[in-house]
Structures are given as C-alpha cells and as structure tokens.
Amino acid sequence: MQKPAPTDHPIHPLLTERWSPRAFEARPLPREDLDALLEAARWAASSMNEQPWRFVVAGREDEAAFERIAACLSAGNQPWARNAGALVAVVVAETFRRNGKKNAHAWYDAGAAVAQLTLEATHRGLAVHQMGGFDGEALREALGIPEGHAPVVVLAIGIPGDVDRLSPELAERERAPRKRLPLEALVFERVWPR
Question: Is the pTM of this model over 0.90?
C-alpha cells in the first residue's frame, strides 16, 4: 500500500513515500538490507561527532532475541509489530565519551540517525515504524542496557504487508489519509507569534 504525502511544496520522492505502516510480511529481512540501513544511520551527523546512538537488533530469525524486544512493547503495538522482519531498540549514551559530561544533544542525534535509516529503508522498498509505546525499564532489563544509556524508541522494520491482515481498527487507521500541521503552525518568521 502506498500513501504518498500530500505536500504543499515539491520535495524528494523518498520523503513523500516514507510513512509508518503497521502491516508487515512476517518474514526475515535480507541481512544485506539490514546492514545497509544500519550503515546509513552510522553516517548521520552528530554533536562533536559523538555518535551517541546504539542499536540492539533482533531479526525474526532469532526468535528469542526478537521476543525479548516484542514483549517490552505496549499491548497496542505487540500484535502488528510481531510481524516485522526485525525489531531494533534505539538507545543513547547519555554522556560524552571524551569527558563524561552530559550530552544534551544525544536524543536529537539518535533521531537524525533513525531518520537516515528510515530513508534508506524507503529507498529499498522497506518500511519502518517508530514506536514510543514500550516499557523502558523492561527493555533495559531484557537487553542488558547499561547505566548511562537510555532507551529512546523501538523500530519495527520489514517488508510492507497486506493491510487486510490487520485488525479492522488498525486497517482503518492504515487507510486513513495522511495529515500534518500546516507550515504556518510550525514555522515562524523572525519571532515567536503572540
């Protein structure tokens, strides 16, 4: 299913084609595709070239590892996310390696890495759905995330699947038109509006 963004201004097709489906084919991702997505993330810009993101990757071919992440997802995300080809926990190092000081930009940098991963996935005909619906403490325990690191988001990555295999409620959400706030609500000229 394709859902190109109805943009007000022309932008690159990778950006208009990117969206967050819930329908995935329940099969593993080719390793070369997964490696390319991670390589795209590796080359994202970051504050002081710190690269504070870490990815814990579980392909569906490793059932135990996949389930460790899936079990930490919210009840609403678990049914459809279990069909993804891989689940990836995105984690940030909260301090700089060189001096141990707090890295206030770590989460921003992780977002940039995930954005590049997502665009590479779109380029390859794959889909990424980013989820904030997970239990961070359960994920920390299940994956052995050390102190000084924080879970940010979980990615479901896979081959787009048949929307009709979703529950009726999710299928309806999947088919709904894409919407965004207008630019005027997001961009201010010179000063914040009063």
Answer: yes
Mapped onto helix, strand or coil, the DSSP state of residue 58 is strand
Specify which residues 95 forms β-bridges with: 102
Count of CB atoms situated within 10 Å of the CB of 50: 17
- Closest to 13 in 3D by CA, of 161, 123, 117: 123
| Burial (0-12, 13-18, 19+ Cβ within 10 Å), 20 | middle
Least Cα distance to 113 among 160, 159, 50, 158 occurs for 50
Written as six digits, the tokens of 39 are: 């390589």
In this predicted structure, the answer to whether residue 194 has a pLDDT above a threshold of 90 is no
Instruction: List pLDDT tens digits, range 139-176.
Output: 999 999 999 999 999 999 999 999 999 999 999 999 99
